[in-house]
Inverse folding.
């Protein structure tokens, strides 16, 4: 019952989310030997003023 | 100081959140012997195009 | 497909984990109207020198 | 490559987020001896009807 | 600066972790158009008595 | 009731954790105007073969 959480800056299209969900599930299923249907995956689209790298908000870079 | 994070697909009413907050806190407090007031709980309502099971977005099922 | 993550300070017995898993799943299933078998739950037992409240490690309180 | 996730109730101004991002990154970099540019930080502003303390939603306190 | 957290039941070999890290990073980089070197990924190997499905610990299934 | 989760590669000494707990709590309390005693903080020390950057495990860099 693997759980996957993905956080990205900015919005994704539905097609991008579909590709990520399918591709990541396939990779984990194959590499770890877990059935695909047991894998639960969440994608969070975060705003650029709420993520920082090196102490600086992405929006300010 | 237990921390609880709950992620569900779709929206909940305030009454549903109240029941979850009270019920889950009671269960953990009793089972683990932790004071109720020390338990911090977050509920995240996620959109159905951002959760996948078996590599397929819930919205597409 | 709800996901639940619970973090507690110190160790729990298996019986405590069983009670938490069953009780929390029952509460969320009933309050949110989600099938029990769709609920995935993780319990993390954290060491007391890795959790702080008010800036002080629990081990030092 | 430290990862920091901060969840707060209610909204923050951009200035508050800038101070948190810079300050927290500085503290972790100095205390743990990690380069600042390797530190990734997320801030989540949660609504008051989705956080509970002691089994009661913050909005109802 | 995507962040990925993967939680699985039981232990993985180093080779399995290498495949997951490479494969998941490739998928997200391609689908979301993010540079590979910006993707930070954590794998957590959880014990079977700390994960539950449908209210039952995996170890007891 | 802010919640802070910090994940770092490798082990920290207790003194490092004390500095991080105190310093991060102070920063968030001051910047966000939250009482210090309401801030809950977790530090996770992760092994270097379970974190990847750019698809490569830190241990292999």
């Amino acid at each position: 019952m693997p759980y996957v959480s993905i956080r990205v800056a900015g919005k994704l299209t539905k097609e991008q989310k579909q590709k990520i969900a399918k591709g990541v599930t396939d990779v984990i299923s194959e590499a770890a030997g877990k059935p695909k249907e047991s894998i639960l995956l969440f994608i969070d689209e975060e705003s650029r003023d709420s993520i920082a790298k090196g102490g600086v908000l992405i929006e300010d870079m």
Notes: The interface with chain D takes residues 7, 46, 49-57, 59-60 of chain A (CB under 8 Å). The mean pLDDT of chain A is 97.
